[in-house]
């Protein structure tokens, strides 16, 4: 019986594991190694890394830190969760674990353009996902936001903080819930289908549209939405918001006793620093809740 099972080994889950282990809790981290953070080519807005840090390098350092404190790491995806007396049972890759508490840090999956190389373009920095993270690096360059919803229009408007050359490209999809008032000047709208795309120097992409318009080197953001990985939480009865993110209180508690949620599966501000802070909060909350529930000193 572990004190806590942590589902997900991104910045949130790893931060929680370190804190719990340093509180002398027995912890198992169940993670299949597909953290969204691993795709970050280099982050320049993460505190204490003025020269930037690659997402995978940061994860490797956090894994090393967790292992030094005895956190057990199981490379697998959690397949099933169920309540048991005084805790939970988790099944992952044919193995079964029992824990008195669960911290869910399962993250989310970004919806990318339907390109065979889309994930690799994200990994190399050509296809961008977060203007909060790297809008500063655009430095006045032309930008294309791929999307057809109000979300895309809001992202385009946000990018005007970094450049005045912004186009929203629907790639032929119909606009959803967008009015003329949602398209902020000087943002342009392109509804043509895409003919070709290819990576370009300086983390840019060259685009050629079916209407003959060509853009040789633009910063491209995908604003097609995301899918929170909250099915396990849903199966346990956790309350979700309209997007499928897990609802928590300010201490990262869900509506289920000793079941906590942290990181991108919870918050709308998908930043590594936010995820880590939530992991730290959840770890201390779980430690205190366990002590109260089981009469520990």
UniProtKB/TrEMBL annotation:
The keyword Flavoprotein applies. InterPro entries: FAD/NAD-bd_sf, FAD/NAD-binding_dom, Ferredoxin-NADP_redctase_2. Keywords: Flavoprotein, Oxidoreductase. SUPFAM superfamilies: FAD/NAD(P)-binding domain (SSF51905). One of its GO terms (molecular function) is oxidoreductase activity. Residues 2-279 form the FAD/NAD(P)-binding domain. This is Thioredoxin reductase. It comes from Sinorhizobium fredii (strain USDA 257). The lineage of its organism: Bacteria, Pseudomonadati, Pseudomonadota, Alphaproteobacteria, Hyphomicrobiales. The gene is trxB1.
